[in-house]
Amino acid sequence: MKKIIFAALAAAAIGTASAATYKVDEHHANARFAIDHFNTSTNVGGFYGLTGSVDFDQAKRTGKIDITIPVANLQSGSQHFTDHLKSADIFDAAKYPNIRFVSTKFNFNGKKLLSVDGNLTMHGKTAPVKLKAEKFNCYQSPMAKSKCAAATSAPPSTAPNGAWTIWLMQA
Questions:
Q1: Which pTM does this prediction carry?
Q2: Smallest Cα–Cα separation from 61: which of 134, 132, 112, 118?
């Protein structure tokens, strides 16, 4: 399990794209991962029912993310593999029921979000990660007044167990 990739889609209802606190929509939020299997294949899965909040002030170029990922909601497409991932061998869901990401700093270059620094707690250990913002946009949505979406990733060297990718979207 040298490489783990997390993708979290944190959907939240918002009023404006400026300063606001957004609640994660647990019905749309998910954290997906891919695990290199002895350099022969890639096993994939995801966690569903994420909770948390995103504070974002585009004008001040600040923000805060606090997302909880429930390990019990892990799905892999194979019940046998899902049970193995939840076992004490891997995530130990009984002992460590949640994975949590809490940002410490949003990094901008002008108006462009470059990255988000934060701490990822998994399996009882917290480590700093820097998530590169590969995409970020706030726009008007006919369904939710406005949305903000970001695609971020962390190279394996900045994460304790591999690479994490976290997606944030207000919906």
A1: 0.75
A2: 112
